[in-house]
Design goal:
The protein is an alpha/beta fold. It is 40% helix and 16% strand. The longest helix has 15 residues. The model has no long low-confidence stretch (mean pLDDT 93).
Length: 552
C-alpha cells in the first residue's frame, strides 16, 4: 500500500519527468511532501504561476518532452492558463498539475472552488480530474502520451486533496513508445510527380520542421534539388540561414520580399505548417495555388487552402521518401531557381543595411538584432517576447539550427521571454541564452528576476525601452494614421537589476552594444542589458514593405 500522492510522483518519475515549475498551495500539500522525496524530479519554486507555465513550455519546446507546471486550486489554476494556452497553441508538450478541494465539497459553493477542468479544456489536448487513486497510473500514462503525440500540446490533471491522501496498491505503468504512422507510397508518388513537373516550386516550412529528424531530411532534400525554403516564425533554423536555398522568414502580415517567391511559384509545398503560423489567405488570396500538404495531421479546411495532395504521417519519414525518389533521379533533380536566389540576395542586403550603424541616444532595431546574432553561436538560444521587437526578430534574426530562436506565435502572449530564458538556461547550461523583451512584456513577469537569481541562471535579458506598447502603436498608426495613448513610465533599470542581484548594463551608443552583449553573456548569473530603441524605424519598414515590388 502507498499514498496516492506518492504513487502520482512515482508515475511521473517513470515517465522521465525532470522538472516541475510552480507555486504550491494548501490543496496540493500532500503532493509536495511526496515530491520532496523524489531523487529524479527537480521542483523549481517560481514567483507566479504564469512564469511557471512559460518555463514548462520552453522546456517542452527545447526537449520534445513534457515538464510540469503546478498551481493550487482557484487563483493558482487561473494564473496558469495564459502560459498553458501559449504552450498548447505553439505545440509544446506540457503537463499541467492543479490541486482541488476535497470531492466532498465540489458539488456546492465552497472556498476557492471552481471547475478548473472545464476551464482548461479549450486550451489543452485533454483535461481531467483524478477521482480514485487506482486510476493514477493510467491517467498519467495517457496524459504524457497525449502531450508528446503529434501535434504536441498541454494536458491538465487535477488532484483533489482527499484523493491525494487515499491508500492504493496500484503500480506505475511502464511507458511504451511506438513509431508514428507514415504516409502511403502511392500518395507520395502522386506528390512527387507534381514536384517533378514544377518549374518554380517553393517550400513553406512550419513548426513541424523544427524536429531534428525532419530538419535533417529537409536539408537533404534542398541540397539535392535547390528548392527554396521560406520559414515561419516557428520554423527558424529548420534550414541553415547561410544555405543558398534559405529564403528567410515569412509572417509579418505585410508582403515582404520572400512573398515574391510564393507569388512566383507554380507549386507550394507546405511542411508541418500550422495555419495559425501564416494564414493561406495572406499567401494564396485567390485560393488557386497548387499545394502539397505534408504534415502529421490532415489539412485544416479553409477556403484559401485546397491541397492537390495530402501526405499525412510522420513528417521526417515523408521527407525521407521524397529523398529516396530524388536520389534516384540523380543530377536531373537539381532545379535552376535564379529568381529565388535574387530574392535571397535582396533580403540579405536588407539584413546587412545597418550592421555598422553608429548612432547615439537610441539604437535602431536592425542594429540591435545584427549584434545579437553576431555574438550568439550556432547552438545558442534566443527567446523573443511579444511586442514590436518580435517583428524585427522575426524578420532579421535567422538561425543555423532548429529550436534556437523561440517566439510565441499562436497564442502570442507577452511575458514569455524572462521565464522562458530561465528554463532554457536549465536545459542547456553550457549555451548562451539571450532573451529580448520590450519594456512592457518584461515587466509582466518581472518577479521571476528573483527566480533567475536564486537559481543563478547564466542568461541575459535585453530590454528594448520605448516607454510604450510599441507594437499596438505601430498597428494603430498603420490603420488610423495615429495611435491612442499607449505610453507609461519605467523603473530605474540599473536599480532594478541591483535590487534583484543581477548584473546591469545601460547602452545608448550603437557602437558599444556588441561589446556589452558579448561581455554580459560571459558574466556569472543573470544580466540585464537595457537599450533605448529607435522605433521611428517601424513606420519606415511599413512604408518600405508597402512600396515593395517583386523582381521580374
Amino acid at each position: 500500500m502507498m499514498k496516492a500522492s506518492d504513487l502520482f510522483v512515482q508515475c511521473l518519475e517513470q515517465e522521465g519527468i525532470e522538472y516541475i515549475f510552480g507555486v504550491p498551495g494548501e490543496e496540493n500539500a500532500d503532493f509536495m511532501m511526496s515530491l520532496e522525496k523524489s531523487s529524479s524530479i527537480t521542483f523549481v519554486l517560481t514567483r507566479h504561476e504564469q512564469g511557471a507555465a512559460f518555463m514548462a513550455e520552453v522546456y517542452g519546446r527545447l526537449t520534445g518532452n513534457p515538464a510540469c507546471c503546478l498551481g493550487t486550486l482557484g487563483p493558482g489554476a487561473t494564473n496558469l492558463i495564459t502560459g498553458v494556452a501559449d504552450s498548447n497553441m505553439d505545440r509544446a508538450p506540457m503537463l499541467v498539475l492543479t490541486g482541488q478541494g476535497a470531492t466532498t465539497r465540489l458539488h456546492k459553493e465552497s472556498h476557492q472552488i471552481m471547475d478548473a477542468v472545464q476551464m482548461f479544456q479549450p486550451v489543452t489536448k485533454w483535461a481531467t480530474s483524478i477521482l480514485h487513486a487506482d486510476t493514477i497510473p493510467e491517467t498519467i500514462r495517457k496524459a504524457v502520451r497525449l502531450a508528446r503525440t503529434e501535434k504536441p500540446g498541454a494536458v491538465h490533471i487535477e488532484l483533489p486533496e482527499d484523493v491525494a491522501k487515499m491508500e492504493t496498491t496500484a503500480k506505475p505503468l511502464d511507458p511504451k513508445r511506438f513509431r508514428r504512422p507514415v504516409t502511403d507510397d502511392k500518395i507520395v508518388n502522386r506528390a512527387f510527380d507534381l514536384i517533378k513537373a514544377a518549374k518554380q516550386p517553393v517550400i513553406i516550412a512550419g513548426n513541424g520542421c523544427i524536429r531534428r529528424r525532419a530538419s535533417k531530411q529537409l536539408r537533404l532534400l534542398c541540397d539535392l534539388t535547390g528548392i527554396g525554403v521560406i520559414s515561419t516564425f516557428m520554423a527558424k533554423g529548420a534550414v541553415d540561414k547561410d544555405a543558398d536555398y534559405c529564403l528567410y522568414t515569412v509572417g509579418l502580415g505585410k508582403k515582404d520580399r520572400v512573398n515574391c517567391a510564393i507569388d512566383d511559384a507554380d507549386l507550394v509545398i507546405t511542411l508541418g505548417l500550422d495555419m495559425v503560423e501564416y494564414h493561406p489567405k495572406l499567401w494564396n488570396p485567390g485560393g488557386d495555388k497548387a499545394v502539397i500538404h505534408a504534415d502529421f495531421l490532415p489539412a485544416e479546411i479553409d477556403a484559401h487552402y485546397h491541397p492537390e495532395v495530402e501526405l499525412v504521417g510522420d513528417l521526417a519519414h515523408t521527407l525521407w521518401m521524397f529523398n529516396e525518389r530524388v536520389q534516384a533521379l540523380g543530377s536531373s533533380a537539381r532545379l535552376k531557381l535564379d529568381r529565388q536566389l535574387r530574392i535571397r540576395e535582396e533580403m540579405t542586403a536588407d539584413l546587412e543595411e545597418y550592421k555598422d550603424d553608429d548612432t547615439s541616444g537610441s539604437i535602431r532595431p536592425q542594429k540591435a538584432i545584427w549584434d545579437a546574432r553576431d555574438v550568439m553561436g550556432p547552438d545558442d538560444i534566443l527567446l523573443s517576447d511579444v511586442g514590436a521587437h518580435k517583428m524585427w526578430i522575426a524578420r532579421h534574426y535567422h538561425c543555423h539550427q532548429p529550436n534556437t530562436c523561440l517566439i510565441p506565435n499562436g497564442f502570442c502572449s507577452m511575458g514569455f521571454a524572462l521565464p522562458g530564458a530561465i528554463a532554457a538556461s536549465l536545459v542547456y547550461p553550457d549555451r548562451n541564452v539571450l532573451a529580448i523583451a520590450g519594456d512592457g512584456g518584461f515587466l509582466m513577469n518581472v518577479q521571476e528576476m528573483e527566480t533567475a537569481r536564486r537559481l543563478n541562471c547564466n542568461m541575459v535579458v535585453m530590454v528594448w525601452e520605448d516607454s510604450a506598447y510599441g507594437l499596438i502603436a505601430w498597428k494603430q498608426d498603420d490603420h488610423f494614421k495615429r495611435h491612442t495613448d499607449l505610453s507609461f513610465d519605467n523603473p530605474d533599470w540599473m536599480q532594478l537589476a541591483s535590487a534583484f542581484g543581477w548584473h546591469g548594463h545601460h547602452v545608448e551608443e550603437s557602437k558599444r552594444l556588441k561589446v556589452v552583449l558579448a561581455s554580459a553573456l560571459q558574466e556569472q548569473g543573470p544580466s540585464l542589458v537595457v537599450i533605448p530603441i529607435d522605433y521611428r524605424e517601424n513606420p519606415l519598414l511599413s512604408q518600405k514593405l508597402g512600396e515593395l515590388t517583386c523582381p521580374i
